Structures are given as C-alpha cells and as structure tokens.
TrEMBL record:
GO terms for molecular function: isomerase activity. InterPro entries: His_Pase_superF_clade-1, His_PPase_superfam. The keyword Cell cycle does not apply. It is an enzyme of class 5 (isomerase). Keywords: Isomerase. It holds the Pfam family His_Phos_1. Signal peptide: none annotated. This is Phosphoglycerate mutase family protein. It comes from the Bacteria. Its EC number is 5.4.2.-.
C-alpha cells in the first residue's frame, strides 16, 4: 500500500492585512479543531511533523493529543529576508515584478528563492 500523507496549513496568522510574512514567528489565529480531527480520523497513528513556527506547532500539538510531534526547520515557510514584516506596498514594485517573473530564481534581499525553498523541503 502506498503511503498516505495529510498536509495541513496553519490557521490564519495574527498579522496586519497586507503584511509580508514567511519566517516571522507569529501567533496563530483560531483553528477549527473539531473539523480537523474529523478530517484526520484516518491518520490517527501517523507520525506528525511540523514547522517549528509558532503558528504551526501550536496547531500540531493541539491535534497530536499526546502523540509526539517532530519539528523540522526544513518545513519553515519561504524566507522573505528584508521584506519580512513590511507592508507589501512598501516593497519596491520592480522587486515584486522580478519575483513574479522568476519565482524560482529570484530571492528577496537576504531571503531565499523558490528553488532554495523547494530544495530544502525536498531534503525533508
């Protein structure tokens, strides 16, 4: 039997609308835990892995119900570097255009490219 995986994204982060965030360690907003538990019923014995970001590990631990959760930095979101925490409107338009034109090759100043993100997650 082929392995099955359930991939979850964290609940909306508590951040001002229009803010660029990837690696910012933000508090999670509320999650619908009862609905998630129903959706994950077939994965009750599956190992749990999570990004160490607060908005992810809070959800993972709530769903784990006592099972161990393995935290792995390779599961962190894209590093937006100098853009982190800034309003998207404050990011220079030419930089956003360069990122949109080449999301795999372009990296924000001090951040990582889409290709680097993919390589990191593939290593997981």
């Amino acid at each position: 039997m082929a392995p099955r995986y359930a991939l979850l994204r964290h609940a909306p982060a508590r951040v001002a609308p229009g803010t660029c965030y990837g690696r910012l360690d933000l508090e999670p907003g509320p999650a619908d835990l009862p609905a998630l538990r129903v959706a994950l019923a077939g994965f009750a014995q599956a190992p749990l892995f999570s990004s160490p970001a607060r908005r992810c590990h809070v959800l993972a631990e709530a769903l784990a119900e006592g099972r161990p959760v393995a935290f792995d930095e390779r599961l962190l979101e894209l590093d937006f570097g100098a853009w982190e925490g800034r309003p998207w409107d404050a990011v220079p338009r030419d930089a956003l255009d360069a990122w949109a034109a080449d999301p795999l090759g372009f990296a924000p100043p001090g951040g990582e490219s889409g290709a680097a993100l993919i390589a990191r997650v593939r290593d997981f």
